[in-house]
Amino acid sequence: MATLIAPANHSPHEDAEALRKAVKGWGANEKAIIAILGHRNAHQRQQIRRVYDELYQEDLIKRLESELSGHFERAVYRWMLEPTDRDALLANIAIRHIKTDYNVIVEFACVSSPEELLVLRRAYHHRHKRSMEEDVAASTTGPLRELLVGLVSSFRYDGNEINASLAEAEANILHDALRDKTEKREEVIRILSTRSKTQLIATFNRYKDLHGTSITKKWLEEASDEYHKALNSAISCIDDHKKYFEKLLHNAIFKKVGEDEDALTRVVVTRAERDLKDIKDLYYKRNSVSIEHDVSNELSGDYKKFILTLLGKEN
Amino acid sequence: MATLIAPANHSPHEDAEALRKAVKGWGANEKAIIAILGHRNAHQRQQIRRVYDELYQEDLIKRLESELSGHFERAVYRWMLEPTDRDALLANIAIRHIKTDYNVIVEFACVSSPEELLVLRRAYHHRHKRSMEEDVAASTTGPLRELLVGLVSSFRYDGNEINASLAEAEANILHDALRDKTEKREEVIRILSTRSKTQLIATFNRYKDLHGTSITKKWLEEASDEYHKALNSAISCIDDHKKYFEKLLHNAIFKKVGEDEDALTRVVVTRAERDLKDIKDLYYKRNSVSIEHDVSNELSGDYKKFILTLLGKEN
Question: Are A226 and A144 in contact (CB under 8 A)?
Fold first, then answer.
């Protein structure tokens, strides 16, 4: 479930006029901007952008960029882009900072449905005039490259069929690979980048049955280099992406292990219209405190207000 | 240009009735079958199939399969399937015989446009309940697997932009790879499976400028194992697929280097409505004899008549 609270009916014309007032003159009215844009769905935001352009011959996104600043500006910018175009931008930023941001690429490749990933890849062509796998391949080397290119290029079967004996065989391959890393790497990448998600989840379950511990736990302990960390993220994203995002949000709010506001913004902006409510519920279940509470304590200013609005806080 | 000669107007109803007559009773009327189906485009054939099913509660394809035999039956069967479904079938047959048929996979991956390849991959999901790259990966190993999975998984950028300095740099990588095979393999696969076709052709041209010989000639001399043969096919298919098909047709007609009627059928059936006319013209230019002449001499029976019809021979 989504967290975004948007009215069923809105007037793009009135919204555009109100936003014009909010950005005109000395200093923007951030409160008004949040009150409007923090309560409009993707379709409504694109309507507002179009009407604003017609009325004032000005790109609303560019105007907001110039009026706002810091994390708030970045969050509003990401929120205002058309979602697949935004994802193509986020993927490109991550590729340009691949040494630290390889997990963002893993997320896009493994959380998206097969058809969603194609839509992203097509949007990437359109925005960057190159393919996503091309840029990933050109900016990485070795095992990390093999894994990322495999995940990004995948167009998995999306059906619910499970081959139980295959799940067992491949659970064992994954288990063996933990002991003998170089030999089995090719097989691990093959399994994770080509099998359907349903089949992979069956494989992960079989792993747990056979070896008494979840594969993510086991891999995480072993995750020492980028390749193994990315592998662990891939397994987590395929196995249960909401759990993955819950942990990521928690780490980002408390700035743990390299996560920061960019990760927080990314997850909130990309999931607010999809399943952020479920992620919020997991957050509460796991931390015994609401994410709104932690955001209120750890963040500040307009950025905090905007994030809380997207998290579904009633005004 | 296509070779298929199909009427602008036809009656699916009359065609279905005529075909019913042709398959009823003792022994099919192959001449009538060729006269109708050899002159109907993909859309018309699917209309006939639908009307035939409505009129006689029978799948026309299955009936034809049971009435006909040998290469003729196989050709009619491939001709009658919906084209993307047929390609998914042909890809699956090739994967099941990957040790000899890996070039068919290279063809599908490298001749198709990026969007056509996605359509094929989607049809493969639908028909086989697995992904194409999944089946390729599970049935191959080593360098051949790396190459084939890379090619099949690609979703290349389809624009016409060329980066000239990149073309030069990568022409040199490809050249170096000929001397030092193991070290550079990863780079060769990266280049061939991720760059846009326009960019790759610029790279191949730069190779020729720099090294005085075409890359396909050079690679062909070196092509000793499956990986290098597949690599050579990939370069040929990307560089000029019509030339590639011309050579393949010639080898198939004269049963050279392992090619046979299956290759002949595949190329004729899949290209008759696309660019078989251009391939025929190349054939004549290269061999100073028409492909119809060679087919007439080397093939026989209804199979010969059907292939000649699809090649555009007037009745």
Answer: yes
Q: Is any Cβ of chain A less than 8 angstroms from the Cβ of B251? A: no
Which tokens belong to B298? Answer: 């080397």
Closest Cβ opposite residue B129 in set A132, A134, A157: A157
> CB–CB of A194 and B137 under 8 A?
yes
Look at residue B289 and tell me whether its pLDDT is greater than 70: yes
Provide the pLDDT for residue A270: 97
| B contact test, residue of A108, A135, A149, A155 with most B CBs within 10 A | A155
Give the whole-angstrom CA distance, residue B193 versus residue B145: 12
**Mean pLDDT (chain B, rounded):** 93
Residue B303 CA to residue B38 CA, distance in Å, equals: 11
Side chain identity, residue A169: A
Task: Report residue A302 CA to chain centroid gap.
Answer: 22
Amino acid at A129: K
Rounded to two decimals, the pTM is 0.91
Which overall architecture, per CATH, does domain A12-68 show?
A: Orthogonal Bundle (1.10)
Tens digits of per-residue pLDDT, A154-199? 999 999 999 999 999 999 999 888 766 555 888 999 999 999 999 9
Whether the pLDDT of residue B259 is over 90: the answer is no
At B181 the pLDDT is 57
The residue in chain B having the minimum alpha-carbon distance to the alpha carbon of residue A154 is B153
Mean pLDDT calculated for residue range B131-156: 96
The candidate with the shortest Cα–Cα distance to A113, out of A157, A161, A167, is A157
Mean pLDDT confidence for B89-105: 95
- Encode pLDDT of B48-68 as tens digits: 999 999 999 999 999 999 999
Backbone angles phi, psi at A257, to 5 degrees: 30, 55
Chain A interface, mutation test: which of B133, B144, B148, most A Cβ atoms within 10 Å?
B133
- Matching CATH number, B91-153, of 1.10.3370.10, 1.10.3720.10, 2.60.120.1440, 1.10.220.10: 1.10.220.10
Q: Collect all residues with Cβ–Cβ distance below 8 Å to B127 and sequence separation of at least 6.
A: B85, B88, B89, B92
- Domain spans of chain A, in order of start: 12-68, 84-153
Q: How many residues does chain A have?
A: 315
- CATH level 2 (architecture), domain A84-153: Orthogonal Bundle (1.10)
pLDDT surpassing 90 at residue B180: no
Q: How many CA atoms lie within 13 A of A168 on its CB side?
A: 4
How many angstroms separate the CA atoms of B142 and B145, rounded? 5
Domains A12-68 and A84-153 share a fold: yes
Strands (E), chain A: none
Distance from CA of B161 to the nearest CA of A (A): 8
Burial B7-21 (b: 16+ CB within 10 A, else e): eeebebeebbebbee
Q: What number is the average pLDDT over the span A248-261? A: 83
Of B29, B80, B43, B42, the C-alpha closest to B59 is B80
| Interchain CB contacts (distance < 8 Å): A and B | 85
